[in-house]
Amino acid sequence: MKRSFVVAILVCFTLATLVRAQEQQSTSLAPSQDSYRPASTSDTSAVDNQGIRNYLLGPGDVIDVRVFGQSDLSAIVEVDSDGNISSLPFLETPIPAKCRTEKALQKDIAAAYAKYIKNPQVSVRIAERKSRQPATVFGAVRQPMRVQMQRKVRLNELVVVSGGFTERASGTIQILHTEPLMCPQPGEEAEAAPIDGTKIPFQVVKLSDLKAGRLEANPIIRPGDYVMVTEAEPVYITGSVVSPQGIFLRDQLTISRALAMVGGVRKEARTSDVRVYRQKPGAQNQEVIRVDYAAIKKSQKPDFFLEAYDIVEVPEAGMFSPSRIGSTLVGAASGSLGNMFSTGGASLANRVIY
Questions:
Q1: What is the rounded CA–CA span in Å between residue 177 and residue 149?
Q2: Rg (CA), the chain
Q3: Domains along the sequence of the chain with CATH
Q4: Which has the least CB within 10 A, 139, 217, 258, 333?
Q5: DSSP class of 191
């Protein structure tokens, strides 16, 4: 008997050790909370290189020019602020490079050297792409960052690179253009005009339209753009609800949706007199708005739209209100019967003892 008892204890200890080891292993394999920490906007990422062969040169780009058999003519040069190549050996006339591909530039350099060399063999390779400022995405995204713009990038791609939206993303995305379009295509001439410091181009995109796949809500992001995914402001739900808490205001939040998000109201709630406390700008006292949620549920009244920082209080019905009279009477009856039996039991006990 003692031996069986000892064996049972050892088995239990072994199982507990295995469970603990498995939990530690799963914990070590699971990503830590720090792995989801948003990166700072100083981090720089780059989208894929799809379409980079059609890259158009701009001021600041660095190119590597090689003339085969003529090492003294080979050089690494930079596109100047005017968009030209003006520092190649023995060439006095600048060669236009802005908004041109490396292949087109290669033909012009070969033609320029043909005046001095018979059938020059020239290769041009882009060594550094520095003409496009990175776009910055921040706000309610998982990884705020700067993204190198080496080709045309649409808004949804930028969101994917930044890890997607967080739960705080509200209804809009704000796009601020800081640089004119460098190499406009036909129909884009207006975007290439110099930006007036007093009238900076600003665009607002609805988050719901982007998620719905509408083309107008998925614009091309320019180099140097600032893309801010706006963060939702809080709304606080308190009182006789299942889970009182703060929630985020997004996409025209109604009181019905807000109450559903916290699990709904309790049975003892007085839904005909829900109170919304709202602080108006410049006002010292809060405005109290009474909402008949019971009538809204019956479609007798329109739903009520909440605003940022609203406090929704669902009061509790009185003891003898129609919604609680049944539970009140049952509780009272249960209490009376309990008292009666406890009193009777005490009297019986007294009789037996005495």
A1: 14
A2: 36
A3: 56-128 (3.30.1950.10), 135-231 (3.10.560.10), 234-314 (3.10.560.10)
A4: 333
A5: G
